Amino acid sequence: MRNKTEILDELRTMLRDIFTAKAAGETHVRLARAHGYVDGYMRAVLETGLATRNELVEIVAAERERASGPAMRPRETVSEPPPAPAAGSTAAA
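The chain above was modelled as a monomer; its predicted structure follows.
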């Protein structure tokens, strides 16, 4: 049985492959299939308790930054999405 480090390293490799394929212009079908594999892998990691959601978010963010450069804002500064406008209110366009 593989340990947590090996499993998370495999996830990093899978993510790196996806981001590289996307940057190379791979077809949508292949990217969607690869995303499905990674989603299933991450779900299994969560369900078995090998990693927390926050650990997985950090891994994805790090691999995305490695492939595409830094995000516009650090993740720590992003809060929950704002609440939806109340019914009947009008939003300025």
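The first helix runs from residue 4 to 23.
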